[in-house]
Design a protein that fits this description.
The complex is a heterodimer of chains A (about 280) and B (about 350). Chain A has about 280 residues and is α/β, with parallel strands linked by helices. Helix content of chain A is about 35%, strand content about 25%. Chain B folds into two domains: about 15-60; about 65-345, MetI-like (MetI-like fold). Chain B is built from twelve helices and two strands. Chain B is globular. Classes of the chains: A alpha/beta (about 280), B mainly alpha (about 350). The interface of A and B includes residues 135, 167 and 170 of A.
Amino acid sequence: MASITPKSVPPAVTGVDRDLDMSEHSAAIQATGVDFFYGELKVLFNVSLIVPERSVTALIGPSGCGKSTFLRILNRMNDLIEGARCTGEILVEGQNIMDPAVDVVLLRKHVGMVFQKSTPFPKSIFDNVAYGPRVAGEKNRSVLADLVESCLKKAALWEEVKDRLTTSAMSLSGGQQQRLCIARTLATNPHIILMDEPASALDPASTDRIENLIGELCANYTIVIVTHNMQQASRVSHQTAFFYKGILEESGPTSKIFTSPSKKATQDYITGRFG
Amino acid sequence: MSIPNTAAMPTVSFISGADGRIRRRLLMSRVFAWTCRFATYSALAVLIVLLVAIVYSSVGRLSPDFVTNTNSTNPVKAGMLAGLWGSFWLILFTSLFSVPVGVGSAVYLEEIAKENFLVRIIKVNLANLAGVPSIVYGILGYTVFRTSAATLSIWFDGNHAFGVLGLFRVRLAKLPIYEDNILVGALTLTLVILPTVIAASQEALRSVPSSIRVASLALGATRWQTIWRQVIPAALPGISTGVILSTSRAIGEAAPLIMLGALSYTTMCPGNIDSPVKLLTRPTQVLHAPLDQFTAMPIEIYDWSKQPKPEFTEVAASGIVVLLVVLLAINSLAMIVRHYASRRLKW
């Protein structure tokens, strides 16, 4: 496992280090031959993808292509949908999470998730961030207070909310709520963070902050992000995977996908010919 | 498409009544509004007339001693104390039984149960159960609960709550067990209001956005933690309002209690507790109260209204006024609870 020097100063221009050499990174997620069904409807066909650790992988593709479904498989959120069925093998840090013996509660602590719509709980800002550790059994107030502070700092929200931690999380703006949700996910101390269009409901300034945040977080976390926004994918990710009609058409370094894709569908999609 | 020449278009008037067809439509609209208004205010007027009539006829008897006296054959002395205490105990135990069972069932049906045939049947029939006349539940209560109480009183020789099959008795307290006791009444009233409690709780649970559940599960919370820490607190204002309003319906129920054989005339409060002080200082009597015979406010009102002496009309009217005041107090409590429960949520 190679150590990556985290960037101490966030980049002035949004984006990540494109030249990050991922060959030295071991695989955080290794999906092999994944098929997925909603009842009779097959939505993913033989998807195989390797996500290197401590990097950003973007899943792109037109609506209904299965990218969000694939993302939700990675922490088994699809278990909540009745009639959903998944076959194939998905190794998260070497363990097959499709194994029935896997405890989804432990898995989800390890593989956090941020949703498209920010979903703060109707509680205070502090209680929102402390929720994950609390359900995991942490009761010590000073431990929780430290954790809340460090997570809010990592999510670049601390300066804005440090004086009103007891006020409702609902009083925050949309962009702040989404960063709160990221802080809340960080508080469970995950290795992998899944983001399902985290900025699609936000204004450009908030989007920019979220993208900066992703650039900083990927020094320590493995991030998989679903996005409809091609520019966003090219700005924030090291690796891009293009889904089309349930098939993983193409995946590879973002710079290659966006400059010289090998498939025509990819070319058409990234140049905006459809989707 | 070219823009038509405005000068060639017919002149349009926006003055009301200029167009015959619009005039007719406006008239219909006004007639409809007035019909709705009439329906609302006529119902309200009838209600006010009734209320005024009741208050007017209660004037002769309604005085402070009406709520401190127990019943009497003398209309001047007849009071409602026994009924008030009876209703208090009934409501206490009805809520104790109906809240866990009702909220538990609602949580199971909404949050835990997989959608299968049996669950669908239960959900559909809950509405039907809420519509079953309370006297039917009275018969059910008589058959199940009163008969069980009778069996118990035989086992415990009708005197000792702490006896084992009549073989030996632990003489902690001498507690006579009646067949028509408070617990039997409360269990029956629980049956009456349970469908409503479940329906209200289900409604409240359904109104909690599913994104909260998903977010909680994604943070590594178990289903139990998600329900207990997120869903129920968010649904609490709705649940508590539903429970309190159902309870106030139970207070007004007379039919099932009469069916069970509740006393229509008694001067005894359950467990002989006739003041809040005794409630706090006489533990043996408190223990006895749930197994004692009882009467309730609506039963006393019904009994007075049947009395041949005309003075009892005033007594019955006074009883109704007291019952209405109690109901009003409970409904206000529901509003206060709703307010505070939703303020604790930081929406």
